[in-house]
Write a structure and sequence with these properties.
The structure holds 2 protein chains of 2 kinds. Chain A has helices at residues 3-8, 11-61, 64-69, 75-79, 83-110, 138-174, 182-188, 194-220, 243-249, 258-292, 299-311, 314-324, 330-337, 353-382, 385-393, 398-426, 429-435, 458-469, 472-496; strands at residues 120-124, 129-133. By secondary structure, chain A is mostly helical. Chain A folds into 3 domains: 1-61; 73-241, no CATH class; 275-502, MetI-like (MetI-like fold, Orthogonal Bundle). In chain A, strand 1 and strand 2 (129-133) form a beta hairpin. Chain B is mainly alpha-helical. Chain B folds into 2 domains: 3-65, no CATH class; 75-289, MetI-like (MetI-like fold, Orthogonal Bundle), CATH 1.10.3720. Classes of the chains: A mainly alpha, B mainly alpha.
């Protein structure tokens, strides 16, 4: 279809066309994804081949200093006067060898079984009785096993760097120039290599405290780590392959209805995220428009009152509001005092599934409008005023201006924000957990998931599975599921919305 | 001016006045809805005659008993100091980390920059609680749980704070690059560009980052509860006060919760309202840049 033909379509036709285009392009994405993966793998091997060849040339053409560096890292650098660099290489190698010899080999060896000696009773001669003896610790084997593998990867990378250094140094010396001194190296850390200095600390934190634990939990999804196999004091845990994931995707697997529970909670999570995101979005913009309307006074006062819900920690406001609407709470109490309802007619705000769901969405509006009001206020001020003026001249009324100018502009500018806030709502732990704790309980839900209830989101269910049931393997599977949902939605939106694509466009 | 346009203006202004009145009514109603819970919590913190939940708002007997009890007979002062300490330390370190991260990703170009950003995007899509079990075990080995939960919590908050660089990066993206280039030509190192040129311009984002970092520990509930593991000495205010609203505690502790809530909310709210301007700049920028 040409642009001209497209422009001739009516609104509905345009929408249908867009939708059709979206679904038609799905196979193409998968094809592209497949192609990208194949290219990636191909590219990797090509790179590996090139790299190995280069390492070979470096060895053959290199002098004895270079050759010795293949074994003793940093030797070449030290011998050529780049003492600081060389010492760092050497230090890394020494630390690595020491670590591998003292514990690395041990963890690595046990990684494939996650331990063989479980807790057992052993005869103690001095006490003349059987005592409980602990063997391996599956948890630590898995954790330190991953760490050791990462360490080995780091060594390979550093070793490659060390070989490259020799090559570069030889080339520089061959042209008769001087090598960089240790002082130059240090200086470059605040200049050309400044990014390394700045990123060192933050990245270490992220890798150790976020990436490594997530990697660990992804692997836990393939083990039977739970309350009955805690890996140390009652029984070891071990690899079980795909069986946990099968539990999630197989619909009918006899004793447990885990997958049905997952399906229902996922549905509610998406419904919740949709309403929570868009109700806040539109109402927030509306409130911003009202406050910023010409002729409305005390703008700062209205804003400050609304902003109170942002300032006051959510655990206070949400817990308090939750108790206000409880059976014994103020709202029911006042309704009884006023004679509107009887003693046995208390409104079951948190006990009725539908009512509870509506309540969390409504109270979330109370929490969310102020953020949107602030954001919208900022953006509204940036809309070029001449757009409105020319619209007025053309005879557009306020409603038309809102739908033809304000909303399109807002949607374009806040597209990425809508996505982040949708994802944020899928993972909105605080609002649900502090208001309802996931309740009211749903008897039809799987018992293996603690007491999952009608308002539970995937994230609160995950929390209960972790803290109440200690069913870590299912928590891990759920965590992966949440990731897949979020990543899937982001991918779709990213592909459909033009304003998401280019980082530099906003600059 | 012709009579017709005058009439038109008159009609417009009556219509305008009418719509403004409607807006005032809506805004006043909204303000009430927004304020009522907070007014209730303050009123109930002064209730003396009973400690549980009741069906009325205005106390029958007023007094400061709840506040006195709070500071003399409960662990609340300990929780408060824990949280305050955590919040101050986290605000300082997190600001430094976020600035390093966002400045680097915004203004320095190096190999692997895109890869790094995608890596963090992917990491951020995993629910944060997943890391809880592992971190608990690690902190247990370091003896940073239960009564020693405070340094453990600081470590957890600070260590992952580099992931929250988006808003701040968006800010740095808006500073013209020609400033850096001019300074580089004059022979400044990148470090000098950072602290002599960019930092002085970054006051709003520094305040925004520090403010949000300071406020977060007051409300954190998940990690704080897991790491303090029911040990009162290691709790923060959120976990401590939450434990007062459970089924078996609420009838004795409800008004205490209200008093505690007021004591927590007042300083945080005042700070927030004082620095509101910077917060607004931050969230608006963050939303637009994504």
């Amino acid at each position: 279809m040409t642009d001209l033909e497209y422009l001739k379509l009516t609104k509905t036709q345009k929408f249908v066309y867009g939708l059709k285009k979206f679904f038609v392009s799905i196979p193409r994405w998968f094809a592209n994804l497949g192609k990208a993966i194949v290219n990636g793998i191909g590219g990797f091997f090509a790179f590996l081949g090139r790299d190995l060849k280069e390492i070979g040339t470096t060895f053959i053409q290199g002098d004895w200093k270079t050759k010795l560096s293949f074994l003793i890292m940093g030797f070449g650098s030290i011998a050529r006067g780049q003492v600081l660099r060389g010492l760092l290489f050497l230090l890394f190698e020494v630390v690595f060898i020491f670590y591998m010899a003292t514990s690395g080999v041990y963890w690595l060896g046990k990684l494939s079984t996650l331990g063989t000696v479980g807790p057992h009773e052993e005869y103690n001669e001095t006490l003349d009785q059987y005592v409980m003896t602990y063997g391996d610790n599956s948890f630590k084997i898995l954790l330190y096993g991953i760490l050791t593998i990462l360490f080995i990867i780091a060594l390979i990378y550093t070793w490659r760097l060390n070989v490259k250094q020799n090559r570069i140094a030889e080339e520089i010396l061959a042209t008769g120039k001087k090598l960089k001194s240790g002082k130059d190296d240090l200086r470059s850390l605040v200049d050309d290599q400044f990014h390394k200095t700045l990123l060192a600390l933050p990245l270490t934190g992220i890798i150790v405290f976020t990436a490594l634990p997530i990697l660990f939990m992804i692997l836990v999804a393939f083990t039977n780590y739970d309350a009955n196999h805690n890996g140390f004091s009652n029984a070891l845990f071990t690899w079980v392959g795909m069986s946990n994931i099968n539990q999630l995707v197989t619909w009918n697997n006899g004793s447990t209805n885990f997958s049905a529970t997952f399906g229902e909670i996922l549905t509610w999570t998406l419904i919740w995220a949709f309403f929570a995101t868009f109700s806040n979005y539109f109402l927030g913009i509306l409130v911003a428009l009202m406050i910023n309307k010409k002729g409305i006074r005390f703008k700062k006062l209205w804003r400050t009152i609304l902003v109170m819900t942002i300032a006051i920690p959510q655990f206070i406001s949400l817990l308090y509001v939750s108790k206000m609407f409880s059976n014994a709470g103020i709202v029911n109490g006042m309704l009884i005092d006023a004679g509107i309802i009887g003693f046995d007619g208390r409104i079951p705000f948190w006990d009725d599934p539908t009512l509870a769901r509506v309540m969390v969405i409504l109270i979330n509006i109370w929490i969310g409008i102020p953020y949107l009001m602030l954001i919208a206020t900022g953006i509204l001020m940036n809309i070029p005023q001449d757009l409105y003026e020319s619209a007025k001249i053309d005879g557009a009324n306020t409603t038309q201006q809102f739908f033809k100018i304000t909303m399109p502009y807002m949607l374009f500018v806040t597209g990425p924000y809508l996505l982040t806030s949708f994802i944020g709502n899928i993972n909105n732990f605080n609002v649900i957990y502090l208001l309802t704790g996931g309740g009211p309980a749903n008897q039809a839900f799987s018992t293996s998931g603690g007491s999952a209830g009608y308002t539970d989101l995937l994230i609160t269910w995950l929390f209960k599975i972790t803290t109440v049931d200690s069913n870590y393997k299912l928590a891990a599977v759920l965590g992966i599921a949440v990731f897949v949902v979020c990543a899937g939605i982001s991918l779709i939106v990213y592909n459909v919305m033009p304003s998401m694509k280019n980082e530099e466009d906003f600059q | 001016m012709s009579a017709k346009t005058e009439q038109h203006h008159m009609r417009m202004s009556t219509k305008n006045r009418l719509s403004n009145t409607v807006i005032y009514i809506i805004l006043i109603l909204m303000s009430l809805i927004w304020l009522i819970p907070f007014i209730c919590i303050v009123l109930q913190s002064f209730r003396v005659e009973s400690t549980g939940q009741v069906g009325y708002v205005i106390p029958k007997q007023w007094g400061l008993d709840n506040y006195v009890t709070l500071f003399t007979q409960t662990s609340f002062p300990k929780w408060y100091l824990n949280t305050l300490f955590i919040a101050v330390v986290v605000a300082v370190i997190q600001t430094v980390i976020v600035l390093c991260m966002s400045y680097t990703l915004s203004r320095l170009r190096f190999k692997g920059r895109k890869l790094l950003m995608n890596f963090m995007l992917v990491l951020g899509m995993f629910p944060g609680f997943l890391t809880m079990i592992v971190l608990y075990t690690v902190l247990k080995d370091l003896n940073m749980i239960m009564e020693n939960a405070v340094p453990g919590l600081i470590l957890v908050y600070v260590a992952s704070s580099g992931m929250g660089y988006y808003v701040s990066k968006g800010f740095f993206d808006t500073i013209p690059r020609s400033l850096d280039e001019a300074a580089r030509i004059d022979g400044a190192t990148r470090l000098q560009v950072f602290y002599k040129i960019i930092l002085p311009l970054s006051k709003p984002i520094v305040i925004y980052t520090a403010l949000t970092a300071f406020m977060a520990p007051w409300g954190d509930f998940v990690f704080a509860r897991y790491i303090s593991n029911n040990n009162s000495a290691g709790m923060n205010v959120a976990v401590g006060l939450w434990s007062w609203l459970q089924r078996d505690t609420i009838s004795q502790r409800y008004t205490l919760f209200c008093a505690g809530g007021v004591i927590v909310a007042i300083p945080v709210t005042l700070l927030f309202i004082a620095l509101q301007k910077y917060y607004v700049e931050g969230v608006t920028g963050g939303a637009v840049k994504g």
